[in-house]
Structures are given as structure tokens and as C-alpha cells.
TrEMBL record:
The lineage of its organism: Bacteria, Bacillati, Actinomycetota, Actinomycetes, Micromonosporales. Keywords: Endonuclease, Hydrolase, Nuclease, Signal. It comes from the Bacteria. This is Endonuclease. Pfam families: Exo_endo_phos_3, LTD. SUPFAM superfamilies: DNase I-like. Residues 1-40 form the signal peptide. The keyword Membrane does not apply. Residues 35-179 form the LTD domain. Residues 191-225, 594-627 are annotated as: Disordered. InterPro entries: Endo/exonu/phosph_ase_sf, Endo/exonuclease/phosphatase, Lamin_tail_dom, TAT_signal. Residues 205-214 have a biased composition (Low complexity). GO terms for molecular function: endonuclease activity.
């Protein structure tokens, strides 16, 4: 799972029926959704008022409160966020969870505990908590998760803290604290400026609470949906009130509805559909004719600046003027209708939302924007990835010219080929059935077009019908006499607490699908208590439980070698301490050379013994103190002997792609900042291989594992520089060249590289048993090579 950012990004989906955590993706390390630390000025939601004297002697207001303000240009969904309070010197934090969204330019009022006095209650707060705040000194944090902070008495710079205010004599603040308050005074951030210095940004004055709860319906000018959408990624009316917007309700969700103008304009670049955010279950029905008044907002999902925003109406007043209207005809996407350009953008605009160019004829992002919120449809589509745990299914409309894989997926061939025809079906309005890659969706699937988490999504209004494409798990033949088989397998955060069924399925894959390889490099083995963050780093229970499952499945009795990491220093799920290691069998002329085994911090080295390279530590870690491995797994080098001949194997799990811009995101071309660390890691591994080959140019070397990068990447090219290694995935035909499916793109993230001395008389195969299946055991496919050392 940790091969992308699908890895634990919290999916706070305002529009979805389902919630969850995401992952995404990917690999290398499980991280929370991107957040802005308090010590970086927030460009949207900030704390603007803090008052702790409610109900105290002399107070007029009955309640304490915290007021927020969205100073950005688009709505911000704060569902799952929290306002938290700690005393002036305390180490425990009290939590009030937030819900809903804050429109651009709007306030959001969080009522807290009431005192015995006061005469004036707060008017329609957005959220009510029960925290009794100090009137004089305390600390308030705006946090992008709902769990209590665990940072003790010093939290202003903690990840997840979006804004922070210390007032009075406190241990912690942004810069200097606000002067002490009283029963009748509040901390006031007058113009919502955020310099990251509380004393500069706030003054002390009379409490002045306001929120969006009791705001009257907006007044404004009449408008049509195409006027609101405009021919751009941002509405020309953002932040302005509009009235009498007509349309027909096309779909109803749990917190809003889509409606569409049945009388479109003549401009194909302006969408005729729009989402109305009601924050609660709408009272309208599909087919109702309505007029809507509201404020035009741009909603950016996931609170991530790299996502595109979608235009919507907030704080709406909805008037139903008729029922059972005829729905507008859905726009068919793909070769049978509205063709999606192959290029995400033909230019390099940087921020597409600020670009002066809007060209739906040539830019895929602009084409999708031109039908945002409208009813769209795909016909006779093919699943190009499996249905994931969030009920999302990537599909490709019939006739799309993407490079197809053997099993019906679509191959990711390069940075300039995002396969823009891919569309994600989401279970927001109707369940999307489980499907495997290559399954077909019969007939037409239709629903509103939305954008979430880096992808355009179609929300079917009825569950699609799926016809199996007949996909079956791959297998490989057993190794023959004189052959040594070597495999790599990312087992996705394997921990003893996982269901026994996961261990059994992994064991079946190793024994039956991979035919019990002689060596298996394993990635993502967690420690003995999994994600419990308590200092445990040993993983012998995890290894032995996997080995026992293999034996029970009819496989050989494997042995294992690994090195426990320093606690919480190798990335991945906090507390899990994932690491790489080796499984190996000793019944076929293979043995592991145990020589002064290294520890978590001792670097591996190479010596020459009578002209033969030898590892100083076996197993040992490659350059574990180098900055290239910060928050990332360190490579494990092991020396094996096969029929008396040395074999050197390096197991790897390079840094995650988390943090890279999405292919279909706001910034074009997408930034791939995570590559820098992987390139540095590749340099170190390549250098280590060079040390072995400097002693013996014919040294038998295998470098393998989850490298979190593509076969055409600089990372792969660095490792194979000077012809020191051959990357076997690159030797396969395109249709077979993939180990992972990311949002419908079949791609190579796992590699098996061999030195030229092992290349003659070898064969190689990616064994597709996971990445294309909805019931996958891991999100990676294993791969195997058979060589004759």
C-alpha cells in the first residue's frame, strides 16, 4: 500500500456516502493528509477570536467560544477537524470536533462551555462543545484531525496544527502570546492577517462572535449556471451572492445536490451543471425544477492545495417550482462522444486555475472542467483497475486508444502520458460493485461529474452491471535443477494482528503462485505489535507467523534474516517499523552466510578476500546514517552461497511517492518532489554494487524490491548506470510490464535487477496476483527471476 499516497490520507469527503482514510498510496511511508504546520502562515482558515470568560462574573455572554474565518478564495471542508484547548501549562488537550465547510470569506463559530452568569447566549453557533476555557491564560489549536494532540506543553509547530493561539502567561504560542484576557475581553484578529506571531496578529477587545449559522439568505443578481461556471477553472463570480438560478435536480447526495440548466448557452466551454452544498440531507428530489440563491464558492477537496477546486453554491435557499421534469441528456465521454484530449495540458501553465488559457479542445483538464457538475456517461467501459476499499473503480470508455495490458488495464508509459481518458466511478450515490481489471460494464453508466483527490469522478446514479473478464491469478513454473529462483514481494504492512487469512493468502501466493522461490526479498514486515507505537521493534513473531503459514500451505520451511530498525526512524505507519528482509530455503544447495551480523546503525562494507568480494556484515544495512534514508527503509545486504558460489542480494524499499502532485491536479506539469530522495538512495545502492564489482567484475548480484519508481525513471537509470545491473521489468513487452495499479494506471514500482553475470540463461516474470484484483492480499504483484549462478 505504501507505494503511493494512497496510504493513509484521511478522505474527508463532504460529498461522499463513504468516509475513510486513504491512503492512497502509496508507498514508502504512511502519512496523514497534507497539512499546514502552525509555523507556516495559513492561507485559508485561521482562528480569529478566542474568549474564555463566558458566564463568568461581569460577562455578558453566557458561553466561551472560538471563532474561525476562511480568508481563502474557496470553501474549506473542516469535517474531521477540531478546535482543541489546553491550559496555560497543561499537557492534555480537550477536543471539539468540527463539521461542514466554511465558505470563502465566512466566519465559523465554535461555542464552548457556559458559565453560571451572563445574559446573552451565542446566536446559532456552527458547532457546540463543552470545553471550559480559562478567561485569562490558555492555548487554543485548530487541528486538521479529530484526535487529541499528544505534543504536551509545546504544540505550536506540530504537524496537523493549522493555527495556534496562546494568550496570557503560557508556555507555548506562535511567536509571542496575546496579552492576558479577562471575563469581558477576547483575543481579536482584526483583519485575519497571519504573521505567525500571536502578539502581532491579535488585539485585546470586546467579544464580537459571529458565525454562518444564522446568516440570512444572500442577496445578489440573478444568474444562470453557465454564468457561474464560466469558461475557466474558477468561477468569475467566486465569493458573490447570486439569486434565481434555475435548473433541474439531476442527483441528490447526503449533503447536497446537483442541478443542471435545461436551456444551455451556445458555448461548449461553460458547464451547465452545478453542485449545491446544503450541509444536511437535501429535501429536493431528482427531477425537481428549482431556483437557487446562494454564494458562489470554490471547494477544494481534501484541503490539499494540489487538488483542483470545484464550483458550488453554499448557504443556499432552494425553491421547488415543479416536479418530474425531464432530465437533461447525459454527455457521453470518450471516443463515442466528447473526446478527452491525450494531453493533460499542452502548455506548462504552473497553476492552471490562474492560467489565462482555457482550451477544452486540446487540454484534458479543461475538457473535464467544461462539463463539471453535469450529467455525463460512459458506454461499454472496461475496468482498468480493481474496485478499491472506498468503492471506487477506474474505468476506460470503449475505444480509448491507451496502451493496453495483457489483462485489459492501461499501461503508464511515461510522464507525458497520464492516460487522461481514465475516469473513476465512485459509490457516492449508488454502490459500485467489486470488479477486477478487464471486467466490462454493460451499457451506459451515467451520473454527475465531480472532482475528488486528484481525479475526475463519475458518481453513478444507479449501480452498474459488471461482466467478468475472466481474470485469473498468475502462476509461474518451479525452478529446475541448477536454477536458483529469486523473488520480491511487498506484503503491505504485515503484522501479527492481521487476520490469519492474510497470512494464509500470502503463503498461498508464495507456495503455489511463485512455486516456493529459493529467496524472497520481503518488504513491509511490521514489528511484533504492528502499528502500536510503544517502542517495540522486533519482528520475529511476524516472520515466524508467515513462515508457519507457508509450511501449512505445503511449502518448505523457510528461514529469515532481517535487522530491526531504530524505533520510528524508517517511515511507514507510525509504530509499525516496517522493514525489508529475506526468506530463504536451504534444501536446494543454498545457504545464508552469517558473518558478524550488523545492527540498525552500523554501515555495511565490502572487503576483498583472495580477490573475492565479501560482506563485512551479513546481513548488514547500506549506509544507514546517510540523510538519503531519512524516514525511509534502509537496504539490507545479504551474502548467500549457492553450491559454493557467493551471491550478493540487496533488498530495498525506497522512499514513498507521497507528496508528489497528482497527474490530473492543479499544478501542471506535476511536481515530483519525492524523486530527489529516491535518486539519492539509488546513488548509494549503485555505489555499493560498484564496490562489489570493483573486486570482481563478474560478481553475482541481485538488487530488488519496491523502489517506488518507474522503469523509465532517473532512479532506475541511476541503478543501471555503467551497465552494472540490468532492470528486468524493462525487458518485458509493455503489455506485461507492471507490478502495481494506481488509479487505473498499470505501472512498475517494484524491480528485480541482476548483474550481467547472471543474465545468461535467465527467465523473468511478474506474477499478477494482487494489483488487478478487488480481493487483493497486497497492493503489489510479486515478481521472480530464475538464474543459473
Amino acid at each position: 500500500m505504501l507505494s503511493r499516497i494512497t496510504a493513509a490520507v484521511a478522505r474527508r469527503r463532504r460529498r461522499a456516502v463513504l468516509g475513510g482514510a486513504l491512503a492512497l498510496a502509496t508507498a514508502g511511508g504512511l502519512t496523514l493528509a497534507a497539512v499546514t504546520p502552525a509555523q507556516a502562515a495559513s492561507d485559508d482558515v485561521v482562528i480569529t477570536q478566542v474568549y474564555g470568560g463566558g458566564g463568568n462574573s461581569g460577562a455578558t455572554l453566557t458561553n466561551d467560544y472560538v471563532q474561525l474565518h476562511n480568508r481563502g478564495g474557496s470553501a474549506v471542508d473542516v469535517s474531521g477537524w477540531s478546535v482543541q484547548y489546553a491550559s496555560a501549562t497543561g499537557t492534555s488537550w480537550q477536543v471539539t470536533k468540527l463539521t461542514g465547510a466554511i465558505p470563502a470569506g465566512a466566519d465559523y463559530l465554535v461555542a464552548e462551555a457556559a458559565g453560571a452568569g451572563g445574559s446573552t447566549p451565542l446566536t446559532d453557533p456552527n458547532v457546540t462543545g463543552s470545553i471550559a476555557m480559562s478567561a485569562t491564560s490558555g492555548r487554543v489549536a485548530l487541528v486538521t484531525v479529530g484526535t487529541a494532540l499528544a505534543c504536551g506543553a509545546s504544540c505550536a509547530g506540530t504537524d496537523g496544527v493549522r493555527d495556534f493561539v496562546g494568550y496570557g502567561n503560557v508556555t507555548d504560542a506562535e511567536g509571542s502570546p496575546v496579552p492576558a484576557l479577562s471575563n469581558t475581553t477576547a483575543a481579536l484578529r482584526g483583519d485575519a492577517a497571519d504573521s505567525d506571531d500571536n502578539a502581532t496578529d491579535f488585539t485585546v477587545g470586546d467579544p464580537d462572535p459571529a458565525g454562518t449559522g444564522s446568516t440570512p439568505p444572500p442577496t445578489g443578481e440573478p444568474a444562470r449556471i453557465h454564468d457561474i461556471q464560466g469558461a475557466a477553472h474558477h468561477s468569475p463570480l467566486t465569493g458573490k451572492p447570486v439569486t434565481e438560478v434555475p435548473g433541474v435536480v439531476t442527483a441528490v447526495g447526503p449533503q447536497g445536490f446537483w442541478f443542471q440548466d435545461p436551456h444551455p448557452d451556445r458555448d461548449p466551454a461553460t458547464s451547465e451543471g452545478l453542485y449545491v452544498f446544503t450541509s444536511a440531507k437535501p429535501t429536493v428530489a431528482r427531477g425537481d425544477s428549482v431556483t437557487v440563491a446562494g454564494t458562489v464558492s470554490e471547494y477544494r477537496p481534501g484541503n490539499s492545495a494540489t487538488n483542483l477546486s470545484t464550483t458550488e453554491l453554499t448557504r443556499p435557499t432552494v425553491t421547488v417550482v415543479g416536479h418530474d421534469a425531464r432530465l437533461p441528456k447525459a454527455v457521453v465521454l470518450g471516443p463515442a462522444g466528447l473526446r478527452i484530449p491525450r494531453a493533460v495540458r499542452t502548455d506548462s501553465p504552473g497553476d492552471v486555475e490562474k492560467s489565462a488559457t482555457f482550451d477544452p479542445r486540446h487540454n484534458a483538464l479543461d475538457t473535464y472542467e467544461s462539463v463539471e457538475g453535469m450529467l455525463v456517461a460512459v458506454r461499454h467501459a472496461t475496468a482498468v483497475g480493481p474496485t478499491n476499499s472506498y468503492g471506487e473503480l477506474p474505468v476506460l470508455p470503449a475505444g480509448d486508444p491507451g496502451v493496453r495490458t495483457r489483462n485489459g488495464g492501461v499501461k503508464y508509459t511515461g510522464y507525458d502520458n497520464a492516460n487522461t481518458g481514465r475516469l473513476i466511478l465512485s459509490s457516492t450515490l449508488a454502490k459500485v460493485p467489486d470488479a477486477n481489471t478487464g471486467d466490462r460494464l454493460t451499457g451506459t453508466v451515467s451520473g454527475p461529474l465531480d472532482y475528488q483527490f486528484g481525479n475526475y469522478m463519475l458518481y453513478p446514479t444507479a449501480s452498474p452491471t459488471v461482466v467478468s473478464g475472466g481474470l485469473r491469478p498468475g502462476t509461474t513454473r518451479p525452478q529446475r535443477a541448477g536454477e536458483l529462483s529469486i523473488a520480491t514481494y511487498n506484503v503491505e504492512n504485515l503484522a501479527p494482528g492481521d487476520p490469519q487469512s492474510k497470512f494464509d493468502k500470502l503463503a498461498t501466493g508464495i507456495v503455489h503462485n511463485l512455486s516456493s522461490p529459493d529467496i524472497v526479498a520481503v518488504e513491509e514486515i511490521q514489528d511484533n505489535d504492528g502499528a502500536t507505537d510503544d517502542g517495540v521493534v522486533a519482528a520475529d513473531v511476524t516472520w515466524n507467523k508467515l513462515i508457519d503459514a507457508v509450511t501449512a500451505a505445503g511449502g518448505p520451511k523457510y528461514q529469515w534474516r532481517s535487522i530491526d530498525p531504530v524505533n520510528d526512524q524508517d517511515g511507514g505507519q507510525p509504530g509499525g517499523n516496517i522493514r525489508v528482509g529475506f526468506l530463504f530455503r536451504t534444501d536446494r544447495g543454498l545457504s545464508f552466510v552469517d558473518r558478524s551480523p550488523g545492527d540498525s546503525t552500523t554501515p555495511e562494507s565490502v572487503t576483498s578476500v583472495h580477490g573475492v568480494p565479501q560482506l563485512t556484515h551479513s546481513p548488514g544495512r547500506v549506509a544507514p546514517a546517510d540523510d538519503a534514508w531519512q524516514d525511509s527503509r534502509k537496504p539490507l545486504a545479504g551474502e548467500f552461497s549457492y553450491h559454493g558460489k557467493p551471491l550478493f542480494v540487496l533488498a530495498n524499499h525506497f522512499a514513498s511517492k507521497g507528496g508528489d502532485d497528482p497527474l490530473m491536479g492543479r499544478y501542471q506539469p506535476p511536481a515530483r518532489g519525492s524523486e530527489t530522495q529516491r535518486d539519492q538512495q539509488a546513488v548509494l545502492v549503485h555505489r555499493f554494487v560498484g564496490q562489489l564489482q570493483a573486486i570482481d567484475p563478474a560478481a553475482r548480484i541481485v538488487v530488488l524490491g519496491d523502489l517506488n519508481d518507474f522503469e523509465f525513471s532517473d532512479t532506475a537509470h541511476t541503478l543501471t548506470a555503467d551497465h552494472s545491473l540490468v532492470d528486468l521489468p524493462g525487458t518485458l513487452p509493455l503489455r506485461d510490464r507492471y507490478t502495481y495499479d494506481y488509479e487505473g494506471n498499470s505501472e512498475v514500482l517494484d524491480h528485480l535487477m541482476v548483474s550481467p553475470s547472471l543474465l545468461p540463461r535467465h527467465d523473468y516474470q511478474v506474477v499478477h496476483i494482487n494489483s488487478e484484483f478487488a480481493n487483493q492480499t497486497s497492493d503489489h504483484d510479486p515478481q521472480i527471476a530464475r538464474v543459473r549462478p
